[in-house]
Amino acid sequence: MVSRKGMRWLRSIESRRPPTSDVAEPLISVTDVKHYFYCPRILYFEHVLHAKPQLGSQQEESRKRHEEYVRKELRRMDAIYYSSDFVGAEKMLFVPLCSSNIGLKGIVDLIIKTRSDEYIPVDYKNMVSNRGRAWTDHKYQLAAYALLIDEVFNTTVKRGFINYMPEKLIVKLEITRTVKTHVKRALGHIKRIIQEEKLPPIRVSRQKCTGGCGYKQICQYDYTHYSLT
Ligand code: SF4
Q: Best exposed site among 168, 193, 219, 223 by fewest CB in 10 Å?
């Protein structure tokens, strides 16, 4: 059963819910793509219920100070920024990108443009990796940035990096055509979640779901009403 506090919160959300969902919103964000691959329900709570996530103070702080953390990381002499592979490369920080063609927008932390005109996205995470590997949602987030870079710079991104800052770990990822197609398909699913306003099934296991998304309170409500297992 959902707690009284949870019910009160849910009612307050429903009363704040605007008459229409984000159907008219033309562009999906790269963060939406990340959320979709982590748990599609987050999109429902955010774009259909318009619920504000209840995040811990540390998470809030990390979100707000992301740019500051990245700039600090980039000053380190072993940052990818200074790798010998990229001598003479152009480095673009916090690049806003959008494409109406694929209906996507986002701000990529870093783009390295090599002297041979290769574009390489780099994403920074203030968290640990999945035992030395990239988390699935992070991998597709990077691929979504790659799609945007392809569109905006008329190029083909083939690789990218994720820097897990607390571990000082840089994970290299190949961004294949298959991965990009997967992201494009996900964009269609995301649009459907928003347009059809149907609660998507839970993707993460209950054991793994720590509620770090900020929606655990209303998600518990749905467990009881939709009998999901
Ligand atoms: S609480 Fe868990 S199942 Fe519910 S939206 Fe968040 S991650 Fe998904």
A: 168
**Ligand 1, CB within 6 Å, residue ranges:** 39, 41-42, 202, 204, 209, 211, 213, 215-216, 219
Asked, for residue 19, whether it belongs to a domain, the answer is: no
Ligand 1 atom 4: residue of nearest CA: 219
Position 20 in a domain:
no
CATH number (domain holding residue 213): 3.90.320
| Ligand 1 atom closest to the CA of 42, numbered from 1 | 5
Domain span holding position 210: 4-12+26-226
**Could you give the number of structural domains in the chain?**
1
Q: What pLDDT, in 10s, does the model give residues 150-188? A: 999 999 999 999 999 999 999 999 999 999 999 999 999
pTM, rounded to two decimals: 0.84
88 dihedral zone (left: phi>0; alpha: psi -120 to 50; beta): left
Name the residue of 2, 39, 225 to mutate for ligand 1: max ligand atoms within 8 A of Cβ: 39
Distance 22 CA to ligand 1 centre (A): 20
pLDDT of amino acid 219: 84
Looking at the CA of residue 211, tell me the nearest atom of ligand 1: 1
Considering the domain boundaries, does residue 21 fall inside one?
A: no
With respect to residue 18, please indicate whether it lies within any of the assigned structural domains: no
